[in-house]
Amino acid sequence: MARVSARARPERERVLVPGRQDCPACGGHMRLRYENCRSLVTLSGMVRLRLRIRRCEAPDCRRFRVPYRPEAEGALALPQHEFGLDVIALGRNPIILVHSLRR
Ligand SMILES: [Zn+2]
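^ thats the input. predicted complex w/ zinc ion below
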């Protein structure tokens, strides 16, 4: 069933930056190139994640322009999922959790 109303705006925000600055393939410096945002439903409420993305700019590197995302993102949620790993691990129904967060 499709969502009939807009999801509430997250009241908290976390900025995640990759800890690694050197390219895993060539060892060169990876610059911060752009940001992505995603909203995540966790047991403690909704969180807006601002993800700073690095990329290797060496043209001869096999990871040339491949995004390097913050490592901590994988500890919070699966890729392209809107529910955090804590929600999934407890096996709670995410739809019921979203409705309880609105109150
Ligand atoms: Zn590289």
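Residues 23, 25-26, 28, 56, 58, 61, 63 surround zinc ion (CB under 6 Å).
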